[in-house]
Records
---
Amino acid sequence: MTSVKTFTSPTAAAKSLFQHVKYEHLVAGVTGGVASTLILHPLDLIKIRFAGELKLMLCLQYSDASCANRGRAYTGMVDALSSIYRLEGVRGLYRGFVPGMFGVSHGAIQFMTYEEMKNSYNQYRNVPIDTKLSTVEYLGFAATSKLIAASVTYPYQVIRARLQDQFHSYEGSLDCIRQTWRYEGSRGFYKGLFPYLLHVMPNICLVFIIYEKFTNGS
């Protein structure tokens, strides 16, 4: 008896893939991202401003006019928080918050990608999707999911950082996007991506390894 092979179109294959996506992974990533952004955004703002002051003192980026208008430097984290609150109010502490909320998608994409890659890998091996993997396999999926999420969402971090920098003046997120595109092109939205990945990759791999060890009870 002659066997007949059935043809599956790319559209049908993609549809089948997304039918198996567990959207609770996406919801979990979004929820965690919103919570962390609300709590940690002021600290992110301070980090950017400290970095801006260092650039200013080293004369790497800013003109003499901006040096004259910068005012006194912050003496520490508490001084920075109190000064920003006193001079700019709560809105000052959450400058760049809107693009930061777009960044919630980063955690969501990363977490969902990580989980779906594990599930697809186990399905490929014809084993239950909750089968434990080796440490090397977990590290590979963690690093890959981080690369995918970063390549998709990194531009928001550039926009947020520039809005938070007290030495740059933008009318808002759209104005920052327009100026970045006008003067730097698409490469401007990915400035600092490589150092960022070097910084976060070991951290995220460690986080996922600990996560797997605790959730698997091993």
---
Amino acid sequence: MLSIRCNSGGGLSLKNDASLIKEIVEHVLRNLKIKWNLIRQKEDVLREFPEKCPPRGSESVVVYTTSLGVIPPTLQACARVKSVLDFHGAEFEERDLWADKSNEYLEELRTLLGGRVELPSVFVKGRYLGGVMEVMKLNESGQFPAILRACSRQSGR
């Protein structure tokens, strides 16, 4: 059977069903390959960071911070990281050690970082990115948006 089809130049072309089906299948396969490559790129971008997953953080962005202003540089560093995340429209869970009276977040962070505490500490999909210096470096190099896309959870906060 023959089918009539408009081509990209606005004209008509005649194709039999077999060639039309072949063309459709090739188009679908090309799109699947493109989507698969994008998925792999999302996963690859996080591989260089150590696997350290906060509780309930395997599919999200988790940031350990403090709102205690006694040590201004630490408070400012936390604000800088949150500002960069907000700038990129990233949805993140902030775990404020000062506001957590049960010390649950402090214990989580100590466990994740082998006994030490670094604020802020940023985790994306169970990978430890680092503190303010690492986040700023990733942002300035243009890598940070790709890392956040790997998480695929963005919204205006």
